[in-house]
Each structure stands twice: as C-alpha cells, then as structure tokens.
Amino acid sequence: MKKVLFLCTGNSCRSQMAEAIVNARFGDEWQAVSAGTRPAGYTHPKAIAALAEIGIQHQGRSKHVDEFLGQEFDLVVTVCDSAAEDCPVWLGKGKKVHHSFFDPAITDDMADFRRVRDEIAQVIPNLLREANL
Predict the structure, then answer these.
(1) Residues with Cβ < 8 Å from 74, sequence gap 6 or more?
(2) How do residues 81-124 score in pLDDT, each as one tens digit?
C-alpha cells in the first residue's frame, strides 16, 4: 500500500479533508495521514460537516508533523495557499508536491468549505496518479 502525507500549518481543514477523501475513496491503494507545523488542536467542525455531506465520516485529529518524522511516504503534498503562511517543508523521503488550496477557516463560510472540499476531491486524485509510483 502506498502512503501519502498531507501537510499544512494548522492541520484543521484542508489537510484533514484531503486525508479523509483519499482514505474514503482510494483506501484500497493509498493510506493517507495529515499533519501541521502548528496544529490547531482540533479538526474544524465545518470541514467535518462538509465531508459528511458527501458521505465521508471523518473524526480527524490535529497532528504535529513531528509525529511522522522518520516514517517513509511515497508522496508528500503541501496544501498551503499563501506565501505568507509558513507552509512546512518535508525533509523525509517521498516525492514532494505542492498544490495551494484556499483556507476556508479564514472566512468560516460553509460555502467555502464546500468549494475547497470539491476542489480537493478533484485535484488530489490527479496528484496521486501523476506521482508515477
């Protein structure tokens, strides 16, 4: 089974949604986890609600990137959307890819959570295919 790590700053929205979508839709081939450099300590309730709307039940746990140091991943995806945000750098093994997604926690608008969820659901499968693993 291939492993993918989704990284961002707070690990409360975008990386959590990516983790949940991959595990729900591609779990027979990929195992996904997520982490942040400054974990928020929770998974945003609107991210969980947006996932539930498409039939994905995700509890989520905001994790620090240090939990995964020393582990090997086939693919590492950073999902930060702004140069002002300190998007983490993964120094471990694994092909590294960056794709910016808007942070819906900024607006806290459910429509933004849905839009980002749908974008993640469209973009991430392509990144998994393009990993050429």
Answers:
(1) 2, 3, 4, 94, 95, 131, 133
(2) 653 355 556 666 778 888 999 999 999 999 999 999 999 999 99
Q: Which element (helix H / strand E) includes 113?
A: helix 110-130
Q: For residues 110 and 94, give the distance between their C-alpha atoms in angstroms, rounded to a whole number.
A: 33
Annotated active-site residue in 5, 8, 18, 127: 8
Is the separation of the CB atoms in 131 and 109 below 8 Å? no
Q: What is the CATH number of the domain that holds 10?
A: 3.40.50.2300
Domains contained in the chain, number = 1
* Residue 133 in domain: no
Answer yes or no: 13 catalytic: no
